[in-house]
Amino acid sequence: MFDRQQLNAAANLVHASMLPTPALNWPLLSAALGSEVWVKHENHTPTGAFKVRGGIVYIDELVRAGAPAAGLITATRGNHGQSIPWAARAHGIPVRVLVPEGNSQEKNAAMAAWGADVEVFGTDFDEARVEAERLAAAYGSLFVRSFHEHLVRGVATYALELFEAVAALDTVYVPIGMGSGICGVILVRDLLGLETEVVGVVSDQADAVARSFEAGSIVETDTADTFADGMACRVPAPDAMAIINRGAARIVRVSEDDIADAVRLIYTTTHNVAEGAGAAACAAAAKDTDRGDKTGVVLTGGNIDRDWFATIIAGGIPRT
Prior knowledge:
With 320 residues, the protein is α/β, with parallel strands linked by helices.
């Protein structure tokens, strides 16, 4: 999907717009998990999530090729839907974003603030995605998939930063939505010739990727009902699954309780705010006995609605 020269070029492009995010070892978190834990803080990007990196590279490639006059349309639960308008605004490219009913109000507001036209459609991400594809065909817009080689190359820059900052990681845990993050980590791991195990993480309420990994073929689910909205996908991307099947050591399922516990643990031990998907890697590391002595967890984002965060800190679980 990319070579080292292309990855370095993507990193230079991303770093022209944002600083590398920190990879930090928090002693209290390490003590709680019983191993040396390094957190890759993708909650420290300009949009509060790792997806912005992909948007930077995707829009750069699009501008070079000639952006469509009708603009872009995409579907999202929020972080992908921030990354595209964030990068497109400098070029005056209109972006239309479809979100499902009940989507995060604060993510919706952030997308609109970056310049997106936000519309509500369907009961979940996959219904919004299908409608966005239909609208793109009807109006001549370009449909921006959540998994695309340019997006993967962009988000892979966080893996390059992590592996260059922290040597000899035994295991890295990566939450999976549509798969750009974990695929980027796998591809960079392989480019650098490292032995690090890459472990995917899904919600046990949205485990289509885990089922597909276990079956060796695409398995869709009927629902994806988790407050970790960044992982709430029912239909895996075949291109992503090909990379995951080849390069992931295993996929760990985490429960709503596990994720909420991890949000609280991250806040207590690091005073960082993690959204559900952002805390999932930590949740998996806490329950996985095969992680090794030196562990990386990717805190993919911190964009959680205030009410949900308050519920979790008070000991509860948000209801979707």
